[in-house]
Amino acid sequence: MTITPQRPIQAEDLYRIQTLTECEISPDGxxxxxxxxxVDPKTEKKYSNLWLVSTVDGQMxxxxxxxxxxSQPRWSPDGWMIAFLxxxxxxxxxxxxxxxxxxxxxxxxxxxxGNFGSFAWxxxxxxxxxxxxxxxxxVLEREADERKKKLGVVSQRITRxxxxxxxxxxLPQERCLWPRLxxxxxxxxxxxxxxxLP
Length: 198
Known about the structure:
By secondary structure, the chain is mainly β. It has a single domain, classed as Methylamine Dehydrogenase, Chain H (7 Propeller). The chain is built from two helices and 15 strands. It has helices spanning 137-144, 146-151, and strands at residues 19-25, 31-39, 46-54, 60-62, 70-75, 81-86, 95-100, 107-108, 114-121, 127-134, 164-165, 169-170, 176-181, 186-187, 191-192. Strands 9, 10, 13, 14 and 15 form a five-stranded antiparallel beta sheet that branches. The termini are far apart.
C-alpha cells in the first residue's frame, strides 16, 4: 500500500474547492436540487450551477451548466419544474427562469430591471410571487448615459418618511410584490409593502 505524503494546503488549492448551497427537497422527497459554486482561477469570478441528487440511490447529475450564477432553486408543487434565478443573459441583472427536472433548456420568465428577493410558487403551480425591488427610471437613464453616470447622483428628492434602509441605501420609488402568471406571462402588482406610501 502506497501512502501519499501530506503537504500543507496551498493558496491555489482553494480554487479546487466547490461549495454546496441552497438545498431544496422535491415535493415527493425523491430529489434534492442544490447549487454548486466555484471560482474561476483566471478571472476570480464566482459561478454556480444547479445539480440534482436522488434520495433513492444517491445518483447526482448537473441540471444547468456554464459560466454564470444560478441560484435559489424552487420546486413546483407537482415536482416537475424548478424555478431559479440566473444571470446567464446579463451578468449584472439576474432574471427568473424555469427548467424541467429532466433537464433541457431553461425558459426565461422575466425581463425586469432591479433586485430580486425571495420567491415562491402558488399551491396550484400556475403562479410565482416574488419580492422585487424595481430600479427607478431615472437610475436606468443615468446608467445608460456615460456623462450622467460619471457625474453620479446630483440631488435626491425625498417624498416619504420611510425612504432608506440600513445596508440598502435609498429605497426606490416603487416597492411591491409581483406575482407571475405562468400561462399569460405577465406581471401585475399584488400588493404594496412598506410604510408612509402616498
